[in-house]
Amino acid sequence: MNLNYTEEQVMLREQIQKFCESEYDFYTREKIVKSSNDFDTNVWKLFAEQGWLSMAFSEENGGLGFGAVELSVLFEEFGKALVIEPYLSTVVLSGTLLDKSKYSKKNELIEKICTGDMHISLAYAEANKNYDFLSSDTILDNNILNGTKTLVLNGGNSDKVIVTCTKDKKLTLVVIDSNAKGVSINSFKTIDDQSCAEISFENVKIDDDSIIAEDLEAIKLINETINLATLCVSAEAVGCMESCYLKTLEYTKGREQFGQPISNFQVLQHRMVDMFVESELAKSLLFKAMLEVDSNSEDKYKHVSALKSQIGRSGKLSAQDAVQLHGGMGVSEEMMIGHYLKKMVSIDALFGNSDYHLKKFAS
Question: What's the whole-model pTM score?
Fold first, then answer.
C-alpha cells in the first residue's frame, strides 16, 4: 500500500502552510478572536480565492472533487495554526451534506458557499441526547417546525440552517432561512474561541421544497456527514499534537536551569518522547481512517471511531504535558500552548468523546 501523499496533495499542504505563516500567525489570530466578529471575512474570501471552499464538493456540483485525504491535509495544517474560520460548519458539515443529497436546489447553495458569499450551519444536536444525532425532539408537523437545537457551529453567522427533525416518526432534513419568522438565535463562544449558538424554532413554516431528505436517505446523510466531520477534527487534533511537541522541544532547548538547557534533563526527555510517540500513533490512525472514510464499507465508521477515541485520550495528554513543560508560560494567553490545550478539550467533546467512540468501536 502506498502511503505517500501525491504531488498535488503535497502542493496543497505547502500552500496552506505558506498562507498560515504569512497571513495567519498567532498575533493575527488573536486580533480576530478579540474583535467583535467571530472570524475575519477577508480571510474567508481568501479561502474562496485559493479554492479551499470548493475542495470538498464534486466536480458535477461545481467543486474540485477532492476527498477525505485532502480535507485531512487542510485540517491538519489548520490545527497547527489554530484557524478559527468556520470551515467545518459551512463546508464540511453543511456543504458536503448538500453535495451528497438529492436536493433539487443544492447547486445554487453550493455555488454561494464556494464563492464565500453564504454560510450554512447544520443544527443536529439537542440537549440530553448523549451524542444520538439520529434522535430528534424537534418536530415537523403539517409543515410547521418546533424545537430547539444546541451547539450549532457558526449558527449566529449563518444565512441558512439545515435542521434535523422528526416528521411522522421519520428523521427529516430541512433547510430554512436564519432570519425566518419564529427562529431565535442565542450565540456564544466555546472554550477554544469557536462561535456556537442555540437555535429555537417556534411555529416556523416550512415549504415542501425546503425538505432535503427523509427517512433512510436522511439517516445516511447524517451518518456520513458526521463521520467525515469527525475525521476532519481528528486531523486538526493531529496538527495540534505535532505543534505541541515541536514547540515544547524548541522551548526546552532555549530554557536554562542550573547552567544548562532543561532539554538535557532525562525526565523531561522521557515526557517529550511520550508526546512524540502519541503524535505518531494518532497520525498512523489518521492515515487508515482517511483512506477508508470514502469507501462503501461499514468499517469506515469503526476506523474513524478508533481514531477519535485515541485523539480524545492522547491529544489532551500531549497538550497537558506541553503546558506543564512550559511552566507558568504555558497557561498565558500570549503563548499558543495553552490554546492548543483548549482546542483539544473542545475536539474531544465534539461529535462524541473518547469513551463514546471506544464503545462505538467495540460494538
Answer: 0.93
